[in-house]
Q: What sequence folds into this?
């Protein structure tokens, strides 16, 4: 605490990002990064950025990238908002769009950044419990008053809602805003973007960090009706007019255009996810069905904390939360085949020792 800190800062509990240790030989399966390098077309686009584009400020609204995203979604550029990672897009949504309702509904087990933004911007957050299978209880959300924010698939569980369940929530009450965080878009979940044509109370957010292998680039976007996008632009232009630099805009454009890379890279992750799920099941883990590039798993006989520590001692990093109902679960990023094999071998050694 410092005498110059503002009143909110003192009581704020900031988000703790997954560790990024610089340890030689570390198998890093803790922050849901992609096992592949980004597409070759993306790397060429980055190298092709001219010095003149860096000398100048970037296009403040990323018009070419917005047009490409819009075209891929069958929307117009006025439906697209870009930000410095979907975290920034979500923060602007909290500030600009979610603070008008007295209450924001989120699941009790979800992306742990949501309560931080709520605190930062003074929103009243109500956490509704996941059901007994750790799935979002749609009926519970439908009956309560307030805006809704859901990660789909949810993190860290990996469980996804179907499009008909999302439709029920979004169309069920056009007077409330529903935000669907699709950071893990591309790994098998149905997208709520299909509902944008018929819903002006919906915002979908997406990230280039996960399915485009561009976590280091910091690029994300929102899809919504033009009025909501205009609201986000007003927040952006009152905060930082140039959140997406020229290199990120060029990389994003190439990533959107390289549909073949996206498809085959996502297929690889889903294949590795199936194999990892099978391997963990054979070791006695209960693995939730995942639509993300990670799995959420617990062992019938071994405490999550001890398994986490065992992996860590062997230079394998996964993620776990000291939180009731999920303390025994490990969230494991779907890595390369060899990373997943090393993880399974390491767990097998521990489990066979009893
Ligand atoms: C559910 C969820 N939403 C949003 C994000 C933020 O992604 P980005 O890298 O685009 O800021 C993450 C990152 O892990 C996430 O898990």
A:
């Amino acid at each position: 605490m410092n005498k110059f800190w503002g009143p909110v800062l003192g009581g704020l509990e900031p988000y703790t990002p997954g560790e990024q240790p610089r340890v030689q030989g570390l198998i890093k399966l803790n922050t849901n990064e992609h096992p592949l390098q980004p597409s070759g077309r993306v790397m060429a686009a980055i190298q092709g950025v001219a010095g003149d584009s860096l000398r100048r400020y970037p296009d403040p609204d990323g018009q070419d990238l917005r047009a490409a995203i819009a075209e891929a979604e069958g929307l117009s550029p006025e439906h697209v908002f870009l930000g410095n990672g979907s975290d920034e897009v979500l923060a602007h949504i909290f500030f600009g769009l979610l603070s008008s309702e007295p209450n924001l509904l989120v699941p009790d087990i979800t992306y742990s950044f949501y309560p931080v933004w709520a605190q930062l911007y003074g929103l009243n957050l109500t956490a509704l419990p996941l059901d007994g299978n750790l799935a979002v209880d749609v009926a519970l959300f439908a009956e309560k008053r307030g805006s809704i924010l859901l990660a789909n698939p949810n993190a860290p569980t990996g469980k996804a809602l179907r499009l008909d369940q999302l439709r029920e929530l979004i169309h069920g009450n056009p007077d409330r805003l529903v935000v669907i965080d699709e950071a893990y878009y591309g790994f098998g979940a149905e997208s709520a973007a299909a509902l944008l044509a018929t819903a002006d109370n919906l915002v979908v957010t997406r990230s280039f960090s996960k399915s485009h292998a561009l976590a280091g680039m910091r690029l994300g976007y929102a899809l919504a009706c033009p009025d909501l996008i205009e609201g986000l632009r007003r927040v952006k232009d009152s905060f930082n007019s140039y959140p997406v630099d020229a290199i990120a805009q060029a990389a994003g454009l190439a990533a959107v255009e390289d549909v073949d890379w996206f498809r085959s890279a996502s297929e690889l992750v889903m294949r590795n996810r199936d194999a990892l799920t099978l391997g963990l099941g054979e070791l006695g883990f209960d693995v939730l069905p995942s639509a993300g590039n990670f799995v959420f798993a617990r062992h019938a006989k071994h405490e999550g904390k001890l398994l986490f520590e065992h992996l860590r001692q062997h230079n394998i990093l996964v993620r776990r939360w000291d939180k009731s109902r999920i303390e025994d679960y490990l969230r494991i990023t779907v890595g390369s085949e060899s990373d997943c094999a090393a993880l399974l071998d390491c767990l097998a050694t521990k489990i066979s020792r009893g």
In short: Residues 40-259 form a domain with the Aspartate Aminotransferase; domain 2 fold (CATH 3.40.640.10). The mean pLDDT is 96. The chain has two domains: 7-37+262-352, 40-259. The first strand starts at residue 27 and ends at 28.
